[in-house]
Amino acid sequence: MSQFVQVPDAPNIRFGPNSPMSVDFWIFRTSASMTQHFIGKRVSCTGQPDGTFQMGVDEVVIPGCGVFFGFGPPNGICSGMDLPMNTWTHLAGTFDGTTQRLYINGQLVGSVDTPLGPANTAPLLIGGSASCATTGGRIDEVEIFNRALSQTEIQAIVAAGAFGKCKGHVRQTPTPRPRPTPAPRPTS
Q: Considering the entire predicted model, what is its pTM?
């Protein structure tokens, strides 16, 4: 069974071809399907460049593409790397207004100087992209920014690992302190 989260269109997620942005998340892949879409803001899955961005893995439409961001060459990045199975992996795609960049576990695996796709009013899908093949696995801690994150910022997210992006202070459970046992009182 495929499941995804649909986020209704809104101006703050309607990026245009030259609008800086970043998307990052953790993914735990459980399906060996050779084409999966992890996140996307796309109108349809007809092969037309009708979406702003998407990220996934593809070994069918573009053999050897691996993890991708954008819409594949020449309008996006193919990493040439597959996504491991049953392992939490961090993915990030950034665009600074000129260059798209793709990071896997904080390491830059590809970049290309090309704009994003056109702005659209399609919903943002987490776990899919329009009617394209959905994700076989789990996705966690999705963030979308209206600026390009730096590699240092992405590496800090990866380094946080299981502590994630939780904001605020983590309250620790206090350790109980031993209390002296009162001495028995003499009886008369």
A: 0.84
